[in-house]
Design brief:
36% of the residues lie in helices and 19% in strands. It has seven helices and six strands. Strands 1-2-3-4-5-6 form a six-stranded mixed beta sheet, with helices on one face. The longest helix has 14 residues.
C-alpha cells in the first residue's frame, strides 16, 4: 500500500504476489513449496479430511539452522508432506533447530513433538498456550476436554469423532 492508501476515503487495495498458492487453492490441489523471500519458505502440509486441505508451515533459514513456524496436523500424510517440503528447501527435518507454534491448534502444533524427536529442536509457543497444554497429562485428557467443549457448542458427536488425529496422537 502507498501512503495515499491511508488517507481517509482512499480505496484500499491488496496486491496478490503469491499466485501459485492462489491458483492451487482454486484448483483444490496442494500448492508447491515456495520461496517467499530470501531465507523464508512456505511449506504446505496436507490436512487430510479437512475442508482447508492443507496448512502452510514456514521454514526460516537462520545462522544456527532452519526454524519451522507451525508444523501441520498430526498425521502420516502431513508428516510425509512436511519432510518432503523441508527437503525441497534444501534442508532436512533432522537439521531443524526450533519450532515456533503460532497458536495451540492441532493443525499448527500437531507435528512439533515429532520434529523435536527427529532433530532435538526446541519448541516455542506463547506462555498462555503452554499453560493450557500443561493442564493435560496426555492426549486422551486433551481429547476428552475437547470433546466436551465441542459438544457444548453443538458439534454432532459423529463429526467430533471424525476430527481425531489418526492413532489418537497429537
Amino acid at each position: 500500500m502507498s501512503a495515499a492508501d491511508h488517507e481517509p476515503g482512499a480505496e484500499k487495495r491488496i496486491t496478490v504476489t503469491g499466485t501459485a498458492q492462489q491458483r492451487a487453492w482454486r484448483e483444490r490441489v496442494l500448492p508447491p513449496v515456495e520461496r517467499v523471500r530470501p531465507g523464508i519458505w512456505s511449506v504446505p502440509t496436507p490436512f487430510t479430511g479437512s475442508p482447508l486441505r492443507y496448512v502452510l508451515s514456514y521454514l526460516i533459514e537462520t545462522p544456527k539452522g532452519p526454524v519451522l513456524v507451525d508444523t501441520g496436523w498430526p498425521s502420516e500424510a502431513a508428516w510425509d508432506g512436511l519432510v518432503a517440503g523441508v527437503r525441497e528447501t534444501g534442508h532436512d527435518v533432522g537439521d531443524v533447530v526450533a519450532v515456533l507454534v503460532t497458536h495451540f491448534h492441532a493443525d499448527h502444533s500437531g507435528l512439533a513433538p515429532r520434529v523435536r524427536e527427529a532433530s532435538g529442536a526446541w519448541i516455542g509457543m506463547h506462555e498462555a498456550d503452554a499453560r493450557s497444554l500443561a493442564r493435560f497429562g496426555s492426549f486422551a485428557d486433551f481429547a476428552a476436554a475437547d470433546r466436551v467443549w465441542l459438544t457444548r457448542r453443538g458439534v454432532p458427536l459423529s463429526e467430533i469423532d471424525g476430527m481425531r488425529p489418526p492413532g489418537g496422537t497429537g
